[in-house]
Amino acid sequence: MVTRKKVSVVILAWNGRLFLEKFLPSVIKYSASETIEVVVADNASTDDSVAFVQENYPQVRLIKNTVNEGFASGYNKVLKQIDAEYFILLNQDVEVTEGWIEKVLKSMEEEKDVVAAQPKIRAYHEKDSFEYAGACGGYLDRFGYAFCRGRIFDSIEKDLEQYNTITEIFWATGACLFVKSKTYFKLGGLDDDFFAHQEEIDLCWRIRNTGGKVICVPSSVVYHVGGGSLPQGNPRKTYLNFRNSLMMMFKNLPLSEMLWKVFIVRLSMDGIAAIHSVWKLKSLSDLMAILKAHFAFYISIPALVAKRRAVQNKSSDGLWQRSIVWQYYALRKRKFSDLSNGIHNEFLKNTDCKI
After folding, report:
1. Over the stretch 4-22, which tens digit does the pLDDT of each residue have?
2. Residues near 322 by Cβ (< 8 Å), separated by ≥ 6?
3. What one-character-per-residue DSSP string does 249-315 give?
4. Contact 318, 206 (CB under 8 A)
5. What's the rounded mean pLDDT across residues 143-165?
6. CB of 180 closer than 8 Å to CB of 105
7. Interatomic CA distance for residues 147 and 189, integer angstroms
């Protein structure tokens, strides 16, 4: 009989032999204990990842998916087989540091409404900089565009400890996501149809819609390579990001806001983004990816209507009620700290965070 663990660190690995060889030792060193288990969940790899783990780390629990159905579905299938109070969804290309779990759990347990969290995410190859996927906590503007404390679009800040406060955020990165298992299952987990990208933002939005809170604990630090499966600029990544953003807004926004934001504003803004991408990259690949994303979203609307009904208390609370696109491109605001009148004061007006 397997004893229930307090924490299960779950690495969803796909063709990640080199990443596992490099980063699994740090995870084991700073994680494994009587109350914390490390799980490698292989997502139908075609390399020798499974054999490598079996031969070199017999103490690590190994779960094998027979088919690679993406990040979201892959995790959903694996987590149903794990019994723990907290899940940590950890990318295969992350190096962790001493105390990374304990520091986040302490903050999560100090306030019962905190359901999900992330540590500070630094870049593995540029260790004094934040990393694109999460930096020091994620936010969403009124039109569904994501940005972070420490990263706006492609502008990534150096970590000068300027964002070292524990604070409530809108979304926590899927590269290193702490979440209470009870709530994860209650909300149905990650949305399988997202496949990959922005599924963690959608989950965090649903957590917030039910009164839960999401925080960043910067005293806990991990280093992320990033782009291990799909690098920035890959048309498939562009497609998933744009499609999933539209799907997420359709599901979670109040009807009065969703209709005009999704079908009028985003149609126009995504069109401008596509034209800008063609001008910048001198390639039609991103334009085609964005067009494909919109058509895929329209086709998915019947299924999304049912998902929308299942979301409790659809709300735009916590969205930054300005446009990050306007701030970045028109007003040339490149740093999180440059955003108008302190985004945190504005964000926290609509929340009840006591941290």
Report:
1. 999 999 999 999 999 999 9
2. 141, 142, 339, 340
3. HHHHS-HHHHHHIIIIIHHHHHHHHHHHHHHHHS-SHHHHHHHHHHHHHHHHHHHHHHHHHHSSS--
4. no
5. 96
6. no
7. 23
Instruction: Write the CB contacts of 230 (distance below 8 Å, at least 6 apart in sequence).
Output: 196, 197, 236, 237, 240
User: For residues 321, 323, 268 and 174, what is the CA-based torsion angle, rounded to 10 degrees?
Assistant: -90
Q: At residue 65, what is the residue type?
A: N
Cα separation, 36 vs 50, in Å, equals 21
Average pLDDT value for residue range 31-41: 94
**The token pair that represents 87 in the structure block:** 């899940």
The dihedral sign for the CA sequence 75, 77, 82, 85? positive
pLDDT in tens, 90-113: 999 999 999 999 999 999 999 999
Which residues neighbour 334 within 8 Å (Cβ) at sequence distance 6 or greater? 152, 155, 328
- Tell the residue number behind the tokens 């034209």, with chain if given: 275
Q: β-strand 84-90 against 167-169: which pairing, if any?
A: unpaired
Q: Are 10 and 75 in contact (CB under 8 A)?
A: yes
Nearest of 103, 147, 122 to residue 335 by alpha carbon: 147
Residue scoring higher pLDDT (352 or 160): 160
Placement of tokens 């329209």 in the chain = 298
User: Is pLDDT of 284 > 90?
Assistant: no
Nearest residue to 156 via CA among 328, 302, 19: 328
**Residue 38 to residue 21: CA distance in whole angstroms:** 15
**Terminal Cα distance for the chain, rounded:** 38
